[in-house]
Amino acid sequence: MSAPRSSLRPTRDELREMLRLATPLVLVNVGLMLMGVVDTLMLGRVSGEALAAGGLGHFCFWFVGTVGFGLIMAIDPVVAQAVGAKDDVGLARGVQRGVVIAVLVTAGASLLLIPSGPALELLRQPPRIAPLAGWFAIWSIPGLLPFFLFGVFRSTWQAMHAVRPILVGVVVGNVANAFLNWVFIFGHLGAPAGGVVGSAISTSIARWIMLGAALLAGWPALRPTLRPWRPESFAIEPLGRMLAIGVPLGLQFFAEFNAFGLVTIFMGWLGAEALAAHEVTLNLASLTFQVPLGAAAATGVMVGRAIGREDMHAARRDAVAGLVIGVGFMVVAGLVMIAIPGVLSRLYTTDPATLAIATALIPVAGLFQVFDGTQAVATGTLRGAGDTRVPMLIHLTGFWVVGIPMSAWLCFGLGLGATGLWWGFVAGLGSVSVLHIWRVRAKLGRDVRRLVIDYPPA
Which of residues 234, 256, 280 is at a domain's end? Predict the structure, then answer.
């Protein structure tokens, strides 16, 4: 960045504000993960087939959902910059257009989920698993709209620094999901035992409850953004400009999600033990990743608000503060994973073959953690600045030009097996994190203007 180095040092107040915003967002991320974890644990008590079908059904949901969620996140910089600029009209327009996009995305995602079963059969998934997974995906469709609307309102509350409604929604949604799983998976309180389909029905209902609880808790802050409804929120050109922000985000998330999915398939080719060890390692990495993910969301909000009020010095300091918190945590987490991989492995399994592979993978994931935290906060920073196209290209390059070929070469070409696949992860994420830091320096090294969605600006 071209600014003097001293001006990049965040103040104590800025660090405290970052922590105040990031901490509940970390809890929200963990809470959203818990829905899938609870589904998995409860389906595991039904049968191995139910567990596999539920996992495959979740994969179908997220295969579509990652793109949709990226489109929804187009409102992140729009609302954050409007809050920073004290532009109530621009804020309302941004939120209402987010609602319109959520409805459109729901329609598209629903159509894509309907043929999940036949698509899985074409991909040669086990014949007794694919139809069940397909029904799971179909019964997940009723939960799409509340899932995407929750994303819209979550971005809005984050920009307002009003995170309590998000927390309330996630807590209530998780309690509802666990209870409804007990009812519909196992057949209690007069309901039939639905197994895999019961799990999907439970999660869909729980997502509506989550949205309703959040709206009850946060309606006073949200109401002025939704009422009165503004006819210009349906205008095609501004919606197109918002989608121009969101489409690269959707492709970015899609590229990352499917890179991990492909490596999981590679692991399956190495055998059940390698696949199980990979799942153990990925679960650990996903859990710790929630901290920089929360820091990334907080950084995007604070950078966006600073740009909205035309304070680039604060935007740069906020970017540094996010990196200090997100990457600092991942350094500590990585050191723990390098120091005690055996202890961490035994939390998940007692199988000797799986333990041996997981104990070898977890230290590699420890290094992976640092790069993953760096790229997460850097992309959050760029999202706050409204920069989404270049990060998309960086993700495509890092994961699919560097990471996947490197994983395949190290594993199958050099014969390094499961460890080689994870070293390919490290190479891919290392290149992504370096390129994202370069982009942050280039973007915030000059003045960044507020995004223009309406002409003339609101």
Answer: 234
Residue 409: closest CA among 396, 427, 393: 427
Asked if residue 35 is part of any domain, the answer here is no
Asked whether the predicted pLDDT for residue 4 surpasses 60, the reply is: no
Buried-state track 296-309, b at ≥16 Cβ within 10 A, e below 16: bbbbbbbbbbbbbe
The number of distinct structural domains making up the chain is 2
Q: Closest Cα to residue 391, out of 404, 379, 376? A: 379
User: What is the number of residues in the chain?
Assistant: 458
pLDDT tens digits, 107-150: 999 999 999 889 888 877 777 778 888 999 999 999 999 999 99
**Residue 39 falls within a domain, yes or no?**
no
Assign 458 a pLDDT band (cuts: 50, 70, 90): very low
Chain centroid offset of residue 284 CA = 16
Q: Is the pLDDT of residue 376 over 60?
A: yes
Same domain, 209 and 354: no
- CA 76 to mean position of chain CA atoms: 14
Residue 337 domain-assigned (yes or no): yes
